[in-house]
Write a structure and sequence with these properties.
Mean pLDDT: 85
Number of helices: 20
Subcellular location: Endomembrane system
Pfam family, one: Castor_Poll_mid
Strand order of the largest sheet: 3-2-1-4-5-6
Shape: elongated
Membrane topology: Multi-pass membrane protein
Keywords: Ion channel, Ion transport, Membrane, Transmembrane, Transmembrane helix, Transport
Distance between the termini: 88 Å
Protein name: Potassium transporter TrkA
Number of strands: 22
Helix content: 40-55%
């Protein structure tokens, strides 16, 4: 190939110069302006109207910048022609400059719209990804940051920046003191993640992706955050959908990550809640930032003293357990154990400012304390209507709770259910398992099942159809059950799952005992863990069949019903049973939203009157 010609080299150099954008175009227009000014002045200086080099340059320059200057020109034909040509050249230059500036400004605005600038914040919360969970997480963080003068949430998602901001404004009317910043980028790309400045954030929340394989996206994001960010000092939280991917996700996240198994967690909650009406209200209150929350407080004044004293040392806070100086979380510890230096008390309180030691001596009425033993576990019958990815785990969890001789019947038309039941059946150690393939929205079918004969009923959303359709079918099932209960004047213990939180309000008209909304509770758990990573240990113990869990037990097992009593007395009665009381439920208020009769962390000095059927919310081993 022959050597490039001078023309080709010049063209190549010019193309490279022009490719540099608006700045290069303005530079070329400046050069052309100066050249045209010099040429006009050169010709003008040789005319009779020429005023020397300096004056001619100024005259030529003025004609280029202001086309109206030519109307005031006087002189010979030569100078008029020169200035006319110069003015025409100036018009071309100015119109080109306006076009270049307009194009450059549009490009800059488009660049800003893409959200590619660095988030210059510190101690902010980073959210990676976009789903319906984002609105729940933001709402909870707004509540958590209400006491701060200026808090920031930085969101990185593969969506348009302006669209994200508009959608947030439409779903969350009042952000209070929290500032939300959106950036467009791949939440699994280290370069894009760097835009939200995770190295100076206080926490990173990775949302569950809407992709076909959300766990793969989670692992990529964990690797991008923990391996791609230098100097990462914050903790990272996320949830896997499939339990088999949990080890890989935790390996990818390293020690900085707190990853939970969403389906396993929801299965545990479903089983615990179906066996205890009102339990989901307790968990929701603990998980959100709107009511009472869990705090960890170091109290030097109680070091060396028995934990029974800590139990009664707070009037408006409820004792749950201890976080040892080694980082071990103990829920419902023995009241005779002493608090060691470096240990922290795990307390339930409306706010950290409400945690105050009460120096007064608690008033305990010994006359109303009773000591009735709990009835032993009896064989139970459970009906599961529907099938999804959690069903297997629900059956496995039930097998750990129910007494020998218990029976669980499953009814579903899900295509995966028959084969799954065939495999699960032989693994059940305690309960018997029966399956019927049919449509759970069929009224005749539901009547043939005699739902009043079951101790517990669980209505699940199917995952083989769209979420809205799944919720619609669940609502139909619940309405049938409600009508059947009213006609037979009986009360069914029904726990249902709603795939979409927006359908929770609709589901309340069915008067089911509890409603579990998967995405919402997982989002609440991730948000709480993002604010305090030690809470992952607390909830891990509460949701496990081993150790102490939350139970709602008959109030008349603790104090005499129909007698005024304060909660100090209730807590003392529970302590003597090796339990920790954290609230109570009034059965007469069980249908009144939003608390459904649950009073968590009550004022211990306030007088209450518990009636037969009311419950005490306790932390106990069984």
């Amino acid at each position: 190939m022959s050597e490039p010609t001078f023309k080709q080299r010049a063209r190549y150099w010019f193309d490279n110069t022009m490719s540099k954008g608006t700045k290069a175009l303005i530079g070329w227009l400046t050069v052309i302006t100066l050249a045209l000014t010099a040429i006009g002045a050169l010709f003008l200086v040789f005319t009779p109207e020429g005023d020397g080099v300096g004056g001619s340059l100024w005259t030529s320059f003025i004609h280029i910048l202001d086309a109206g200057t030519i109307t005031g020109d006087v002189g010979g034909a030569a100078s008029m022609i020169i200035m006319f040509i110069t003015t025409i050249g100036g018009l071309v230059i100015l119109s080109s400059l306006v076009g270049v500036l307009t194009t450059g400004l549009d490009a800059k605005l488009e660049d800003l719209r893409k959200g590619r600038s660095l988030v210059v914040e510190k101690d902010h919360t980073v959210i990676l990804g976009w789903s319906d969970q984002v609105f729940i997480v933001i709402s909870e963080l707004v509540e958590a940051n209400e006491s701060e003068k200026r808090a920031c949430i930085a969101i990185l998602a593969d969506r348009d920046k302006v669209e994200m901001e508009d959608e947030i404004r439409s779903k969350i009317a009042d952000l209070k003191s929290t500032h939300v910043v959106c950036r467009t980028g791949d939440p699994a790309d280290p370069d894009s993640i760097a835009l939200v400045n995770p190295s100076q954030a206080k926490s990173v929340i990775i949302l569950t992706s809407a992709e076909d394989d959300p766990d793969a996206q989670l692992v990529r994001s964990l690797l991008a955050v923990t391996q791609g960010s230098t100097g990462l000092n914050c903790h990272v939280v996320g949830a896997v959908v499939e339990g088999r991917n949990l080890p890989a996700a935790r390996l990818a996240g390293g020690r900085a990550a707190h990853v939970v198994d969403a389906n396993d967690l929801m299965a545990r909650l479903m089983v615990q809640t179906c066996r205890q009406s009102g339990l989901s209200v307790v968990y929701t209150d603990l998980l959100d930032f709107g009511g009472d929350e869990i705090y960890m407080v170091e109290e030097p004044g109680l070091f060396g003293r028995p934990l029974s004293q800590a139990l009664h040392s707070y009037r408006t806070s409820s004792f749950m357990g201890v976080l040892t100086k080694e980082g071990r979380c103990i829920i419902n510890p023995p009241s005779s154990a002493s608090l060691q230096p470096g240990d922290k008390l795990i307390l339930i309180a409306a706010d950290d400012s409400a945690i105050q030691l009460d120096g007064s001596r608690p008033i305990i009425d010994e006359n109303v304390i009773v000591a009735r033993a709990d009835a032993g576990n009896r064989a139970e019958r459970t009906l599961i209507l529907g099938w999804n990815a959690m069903s297997r785990m629900i059956l496995e969890q039930l097998d750990q709770y129910v007494a020998p001789g218990s029976i669980t019947d499953v009814v579903s038309d899900h295509p995966d259910a028959p084969e799954a039941i065939r495999k699960i059946g032989p693994t059940m150690r305690v309960q018997g398992l029966n399956f019927k393939e049919d449509d759970t929205t069929d009224r005749l079918l539901l009547e043939s099942l005699n739902p009043g004969s079951y101790n517990h009923i669980i209505a699940l959303c199917s995952d083989d159809v769209a979420p809205q359709l799944a919720d619609s079918k669940t609502l139909v099932t619940l309405l049938h059950l409600r009508d059947m209960a009213q006609r037979s004047n009986t009360r069914f213990k029904v726990v249902s799952e709603m795939a979409d939180d927006r359908n929770r309000t609709l589901a309340q008209v069915t008067q089911a005992d509890d409603f579990i909304v998967s995405d919402k509770l997982i989002s609440l758990l991730l948000t709480q863990t993002a604010e305090n990573p030690h809470l992952s240990q607390v909830f891990s113990q509460l949701f496990s069949p081993d150790g102490s869990e939350i139970y709602l037990k008959p109030a008349d097992h603790y104090v005499r019903p129909g007698v005024p009593v304060n909660f100090y007395t209730v807590a003392e009665s529970a302590r003597r049973r090796g339990e920790t009381a954290i609230g109570y439920r009034v059965v007469a208020q069980a249908k009144q939203a939003p608390s459904f009769g649950v009073h968590l962390n009550p004022d211990k000095a306030q007088q209450i009157m518990l009636q037969p059927g009311d419950k005490i919310v306790v932390l106990a081993e069984d």
